[in-house]
Amino acid sequence: MQNLATNIGFERVTASSAAAVVAQGARDVTKSMTKKLIRQTTLAVLVLPLVGALSGCTKTAPTPPPPPIVQVMDLTATNVPVGTEFIGQLDSPQNVEVRARVEAFVDKVLFTEGTEVKEGDPLFKLDDRPYQEKLAAANGGLAEAKAALNKYEKDVARLKPLAEKRAVPQQDLDNAVASVDVGKASVLSAQARVESAALDLTYCDVRAPISGLIGAKQVSIGELVGKALPTLLATMSTLDPIWFYCNVGEAQYLRADSESRRTGKTMADLPLTLILANGSAHPDKGKFVFIDRAVDIKTGTLRVRAEFPNPARVLRPGMFARIKVDAGIRPDSILVPERAVTELQGKNFVWVIGSDNKAAQRSVKVGDQVGEGLLILEGLKAGERIVVEGLQKVREGAPVQPMTAAQMAEAATAQAAQQAEAKPAKEGEAKHGKE
Q: pLDDT of 47-91, one tens digit each?
């Protein structure tokens, strides 16, 4: 019995021990599974973003934008009229200021302001009564001098035979001869005073010194003129021909000279066209008549004068105008729109489109402006294509979609037509939706 009890107790201990072992093993398994689950969760958290990133990389790349549309033109060689323009001012060949030469009051104004007068026509009448009195006094002095001279000559004629007979002292004859010389000098002085008084009297009758257009009167009737200084009465100008003055830069002068030599002419032979302030051209051609001897070191320009016929007296001194110098024709020249040329740091560039429709910037040498275009001296040739609109869209070596002006106009017309067709359809759908 005791052994049985002992065995039973042992079995109980063994059973409890086994249960403990089983429980410990379960706990160990649970702990191991928990750690494994944590590791798997952590790995999933780390792998999922990477998988998302890798899946994003496999998406299709966005379609690049189409090449920009630019307007181009094909270059052609043409005969270009060569010339240049200068800005200047008109002036009269002869501007004469009519001034009072004597001090007097203005009695009459004998001309109409702003009209043509002939040389010698009366302009003003000054009060000449004081000068008539001076002339009369001078004539009286001349008569006295002549009378005194006559007396001295008679004294000499009377004393000369008496002195030869020693009837009178020789000194009396010598004094009489000296008196004759003094009398002659007095006559000359008196004659000069007469001529001076007569000249002053003529100055009271103011006449036109030249033929030309007279301006406004600068004095009025009753006004004192000529006191201390010659008073300006009016100004006259000759108008036919008229002169044009301008200042020409060194580079412009040399260019015009080289172009004239290319055609076998001199600058004096180049025909000139006068363009007035309203844009109209003077009907008569002009020519250069004077080029200054030296360049002004302050401005770097030459003073040049041209002459134009002015039979209608339309051109007046002081008008601003410009002249076009016709230097002939330059054959096989390239002319491009001014907007196609860009300037950077003193150099000029254009965008050239190659056969592969890729753009390339090219340096060019620009000449004179011809109308709305620029003459290209170097850098371009006939047959090439250049960009004239859309310069801001062009990049070096980048492709473009070139279209001529006619093609762009056709595209714009087609687009407008499509929009016009689509508009009624949209309006109908909107109306149907409201109903």
A: 444 444 444 555 566 777 788 888 888 888 888 777 778 899 999
pTM (two decimals): 0.60
With CA atoms as reference, report the closest residue to 217 among 200, 234, 238, 229. 234
* Structure token pair of residue 407: 């093609």
8 Å CB contact between 263 and 312: no
Q: Is residue 83 part of a domain?
A: no
Domain hosting residue 126, numbered range: 95-236
Q: What is the pLDDT of residues 296-332, one digit of tens each?
A: 888 888 899 999 999 888 899 999 999 988 777 778 8
Per the structure, how many domains does the chain have?
4
Residues 149 and 227 in one domain: yes
Q: Nearest 5°: CA angle at 55, between 49 and 60?
A: 140
Same domain, 150 and 167: yes
Q: Is residue 422 part of a domain?
A: no
